[in-house]
Design a protein that fits this description.
Layout lengths: L1 E3 L5 E9 L2 E9 L2 H11 L4 H8 L11 H15 L1
Antiparallel strand pairs: 1-2, 2-3
Helix pairs in contact: 2-3
């Protein structure tokens, strides 16, 4: 799935899920080191656990962040699955 982010430096998040587990994750744009780290950490994790951990993280008072946008992307994925 490709998710178009809102309010952050990363433009998109690309990810795949199999049986409720994130099998790949990649941020397009954003702070390269940070987004690579987040993507590697969540790969292999359950979708619901990632949402629980990342939802609501704020970056510099923006009201969202790249991790929060990943949580939103996973919520959107769950609504279509």
């Amino acid at each position: 799935m490709v998710y178009a982010t809102r309010g952050v430096c990363a433009r998109n998040i690309e990810f795949e899920v199999e049986d409720g587990i994130i099998t790949s994750c990649r941020f397009i744009g954003g702070c390269n080191g940070n987004t690579q780290g987040v993507a590697r950490l969540v790969t292999g994790m359950e979708v619901d656990k990632v949402i629980e951990l990342l939802k609501g993280i704020d970056c510099a008072g923006k009201g969202t962040s790249c991790p929060d946008q990943l949580a939103n992307a996973l919520i959107a994925y769950k609504q279509t699955a």
